[in-house]
Amino acid sequence: MQNKNAQKPRRKYDASFKQEVVSMIAAGRPVPEIARSLGIGENVIYRWRKKALEGSETLSVGTAESPVPSQVSLADHLALQKRLQEVEMERDILKKAVGIFSRPQ
């Protein structure tokens, strides 16, 4: 028989993995969804997010470890906004098309 007090071995995650998880949260993914997909407890992810917000770990965007620059030029920002509007318009058109073609005949 197994001892009921025996604990699972603790998993250790490196800073880059933690940073990636925190960036998923920043991108808008819900913590429970991330926890399920990665097999990590929600409380662990919430703790990483809290530490990142407090700045106790180097999990912020724009650090030397992060390939994402912290500043975007104005021209790039405007180009991305324009592209976003185009993609949203395409999405809306496709939604309408699905509605039209899925009607019973």
Which SSEs are present, and which pair or pack?
Elements: H1 15-26, H2 31-38, H3 42-54, H4 74-101
- Give the total of beta strands: 0
How many strands, what sense, and barrel or not for the largest sheet?
none
Low-confidence stretches: 57-67
The helix-strand sequence is HHHH
Structural class: mainly alpha
Instruction: Give the N-to-C terminal Cα separation.
Output: 63 Å
Helix content: 55-70%
Number of helices: 4
- The residue-averaged pLDDT reads 80
Strand content: under 5%
The radius of gyration is 21 Å
General shape: flat
Could you characterize the architecture of this molecule?
The chain has 4 helices and no strands. It is mainly α and 105 residues long. The N and C termini lie far apart (63 Å). The relative contact order is 0.08. Residues 57-67 have low confidence and may be disordered.
